[in-house]
Every structure is written in structure tokens, then in C-alpha cells.
């Protein structure tokens, strides 16, 4: 393994899912649903396969039907208009969109600011691009993880090229507020920075939280690469259909990198994803309500077992503090948890450069059937009370 990648071994998600299989523990580690998405969307994939649509290389930028559906979605949800031909690119999941964006936009030696804890592929993507990652730590206050705007401002140097934002935020469950995003946008404009924003949980926002795309702020449309995917919104994480929207020059740059990573993403699933994006609002509302109910079951179970539970405003995840259990090392805690309680979780510390800042936090996924969540909660309650 070369020096750029030497620090990245197996992803924590693969390691923890393997541990769950080995021990038979309930897997609330890796974030994937245990029920598949809508039947009609699966049927759309089957139809495409049968009718011979997408069985050979689809067009490099993605099939027109999906690019049009992505543009229509951004317009309908956020009032953002993008030209499907020049401002939308289909990728192999959000993961490829992230890597291709970093490879296309970062020069070796450029600094990339990422919110810490950060999704693991950001660090590897920055490293592959030869960039330097500069983490700005989200800190808990008043039950949620917050961005310190002064800290963000102080992190920008003459070498900063790009801000890598994620909202709703994995693993903390924070949704950046309109005010926080407005300040990020002002800073990006003032310091002439590019922004890459990962919005794969855009449809999973709860209570009074609101998902506002950074691209919708003044001065941001033409400096922002917005990333999302079908995995989370439609419960098909195995399909790996993602997309990028942004100004033509940025999308063309990302496409230049993308064409040498995968060339194109899987054809028949693009047709199905196009149909999924056109589902009526009732689908998105029901999906959100279902996930909200799951969040509440898991959060209550974790609180009963003695964890401090942070408010999840968005995503699939509840972040907890294990110190009320008399524990302080999330790594050791998660390694022992399958034996001790029969549950698998993720230590948030893996998403930090300042590992001590993340040490006591542990993430549990709630994108599971209710009986799985109540079983896990009962196991934790028995182990810790
Ligand atoms: N970004 C975040 C924040 C994620 O949590 C995930 C996956 N869980 C991804 C990107 C990757 O998305 P995809 O599966 O579409 O590649
Ligand atoms: N994004 C998922 C999570 O945070 C994992 C995806 C993966 O395994 N790469 O759990």
C-alpha cells in the first residue's frame, strides 16, 4: 500500500459487520436497512433488465432519464435548477462522487477542511488526491453537535481549496441549521473556496429540522458540488447509484475523474433510480415517518440502558456518550460489546483525527425493523442495568 493510503486499513464498517456475523450479535453498526425499498422501484429495475435497457454501457454522464429526474428533484425540493445535460452527473454511489470530486478539484498540497467526525471515505479521498485534511471538530452543546464558526474561520488558510460539508451529518445525526450554513456560505464566498456537500441523508430529517442545500445560498451555486444517492432515500444501498449537481465547469471536472474510475455506473439501476426520484411526496413522507419512529424506539432503549443520547435531527444514526455507563473508550467498548451485550456499534473515534475528542462517543444505526431495535435495546438494558 502506498504512503498516501497506508493509514487506511479495512473500513470500520466491514470490520464491524464481519464481527456481527462472527458473533451473531445484532448489527447496529454499518448503516444499511434490513428491509428493501419500494416494490415498484424493484420492478422498474427488473423491467429495465428484461427490456434490455442499460445492459450495455450507459452514457458516460448517466442515462438522460436519471439526469432529468435528478434535476427535477432539485427543482421540486429546493428550487435549484440544473441543466440535466451539463450540470448533472451520475456516479457509482455517493462514494464515487466524493472520490471523483476530490480527485478532480484538489491539487497535491491543497488543504481540505472537513467537519470532524467525518465519514471515513472523505479522509481516504483527500489522501488519494494528495490533499491535506484539516478537521474542524463538531462539539456537543445542548444535546446536539455544533459547528464552531470561529473555529471554521480560523481553519481557513491561503492553501485551503475546499470545504467538505455533510448535512444531515453522519455519525452525529446533526443537521446544520440555516444560520450555520449561511455562515459557511459567507466564508466560502469571502475566501473564494469550493464546497463539496454530501447530502445522502437529505430525506431523513426529523422534528423541526430542515435540510437546506448549501448550493441554495447566495454566491454558492457556482462554487458548490452537491452529492446525493439513491441508497439511503430508497433503501437500496447495494445499488450504488449516486449523482452530482453543480455548475458546468465543476461537473465537467468531476466527470473527467469519474470516467477513469468506473467510466459508467450500473445501467438498469439507473432506470429504476429515475423512477424512484419521481415517486410522489407521500413516499418520502411515509419513509421519513417510519424512520422517525425507529429513531424514537432506539433512542428510548439506549437511554433506558443508561447511555447519554444525543438528539438525532437527521440520518440513520443515534450517537451516544458512554461515560454514564462508567466507560470512556469507545473503541474498547465497541470491541467488547458483541460479547457483553450481543450488539454491534461503531466507535465514533474512527471518524476523528483528534481521537480524544471522539473517544466516548458510540454510534448505533436505527435503519432496522422495529423488533430488531427492541431486541437490541433489551440486550443493552440487560447488560448495563
Ligand atoms: N456519505 C455518507 C455520509 C454516508 O453515510 C454514506 C454511506 N452510508 C455515503 C456517503 C456513501 O453513499 P453510497 O452508498 O451512495 O456510495
Ligand atoms: N455509510 C454507511 C455507514 O455509515 C456505511 C457504508 C460503507 O460501509 N461504506 O454506516
From TrEMBL:
Keyword Membrane: no
InterPro entries registered for this protein in UniProt: Aminotransferase_I/II_large, Kynurenine-oxoglutarate_AT, PyrdxlP-dep_Trfase, PyrdxlP-dep_Trfase_major, PyrdxlP-dep_Trfase_small
EC number: 2.6.1.-
A GO term, aspect molecular function: transaminase activity
UniProt KW Transferase keyword: yes
EC class name: transferase
Keywords linked to the UniProt accession: Aminotransferase, Pyridoxal phosphate, Transferase
Highest rank taxon of the organism: Bacteria
Gene3D superfamilies, A to Z: Aspartate Aminotransferase, domain 1, Type I PLP-dependent aspartate aminotransferase-like (Major domain)
Aminotransferase class I/classII large domain segment(s): 26-380
SUPFAM superfamilies with a match to the protein in the record: PLP-dependent transferases (SSF53383)
A Pfam family annotated for this UniProt entry: Aminotran_1_2
The protein's required cofactors: pyridoxal 5'-phosphate
CDD domains per the UniProt record, alphabetical: AAT_like (cd00609)
NCBIfam families with a match to the protein in the record: PRK07777.1 (NF005855)
Protein name: Pyridoxal phosphate-dependent aminotransferase
Source organism: Streptomyces althioticus subsp. attaecolombicae
Organism ancestry: Bacteria, Bacillati, Actinomycetota, Actinomycetes, Kitasatosporales
